[in-house]
## 1
Amino acid sequence: MAGEYEVLLSEEVLQRKVQELGRQITADYRGKRLLLVGVLKGAVVFIVDLARNIDLPLEIDFMAVSSYGASTETSGVVRIIKDLEASLQDKDVLIVEDIVDTGLTLDYLRQNLLSRSPASLRICALLNKRKERKAPVPLDYVGFEIEDQWVVGYGLDSGELHRNLPYIGLVKDAQPLSKREEPCE
Ligand code: 5GP
């Protein structure tokens, strides 16, 4: 335990994995026009570290989306709060997401971005929860598979706090359902 958190993935373990993902993405996208699309706010820390480990010229842009309330969770209705500034035309787009839970957010984003004619579209998620998906999304790069539990740190929040932790941890009194009442981060 560190304070009120239990460390699930240490800073060292996270950094090693981000370097590994960066090397793999560098090899896969050599000679291509790469655009990293970060999903605010949870993916901010990950995308910055990941970008610094990709040895290619690349662009970074951000989107913010929100899910409607808990009662409509299964509908997968997602609203764009902040859209991309960059055009996707002829670009190789990599969505960078913090964590995949039901898959509804990424499924919506994927369909939405595919309609903008990118040269290619792939997904990189730091964490993937081991659970049945409400929407099956293809994950091209995954950092870690984790159990279905509420995690914080390294960009992930609980009630907007804990994003600044350098590791991924567990908070005992976290309220997972609150994410459905707030912008999806
Ligand atoms: P999905 O649409 O896959 O159900 O939800 C994805 C989003 O829910 C993530 O981008 C993240 O904002 C939030 N989320 C899902 N699980 C967790 C978690 O364990 N911790 C935190 N902090 N956010 C989560």
## 2
Amino acid sequence: MTVAESQRLFFALWPAPAVAELITERMAACLPRCRRIPPANLHITLAFIGDVEATKAVCVQQAADRISSREFTLNLSQTGFWRRPGVVWIAPETTPAALIQLHGDLSRALKDCGCQPETRPYHPHLTLCRKARHGPTTGMIEPITMLINEFVLVQSRLSAAGAEYKILRRWPPAR
Ligand code: ATP
Ligand code: MG
């Protein structure tokens, strides 16, 4: 019997290395005891695809090719804590229309390719640490500007050492 190869995929916004370093530095002093995410792994998930075989992986990429996104900026200034997963996060104070549009377009693309739709409301955020028992010591920080000039398709490999991410493709905004 042959087993079809599957990949664990998601669409994301990936901060430039300097922005990821800045977030890590600014937040270092106010994080509780937790498993911190290294700067290179910080991201905003746009749409989680999950484990899919090649046919679906191709389908979602072709659907992404048809999306025309715009350039925009996010002002990351809000921090928070989700108790159940023990996640401390940073997020934009408001979600720009361009991000709502991009998230909607990608969600429809996934649905059209037969992927399981996400039922929870979308809360764009960067997970800063996991396994936290309480939240950060501050709820707001001086805004950090994250320029969004592409979205990316990422492969995730999970192991005991934590997730390993690989950017497979990038989609710049339409001209
Ligand atoms: P780990 O699972 O080891 O804690 P991770 O959650 O970062 O690491 P993945 O589970 O591969 O790695 O998830 C990749 C991204 O997709 C993460 O940002 C994660 O929060 C998000 N994600 C995972 N599962 C879902 C889901 N069912 N719905 C929405 N987003 C998800
Ligand atoms: Mg996970």
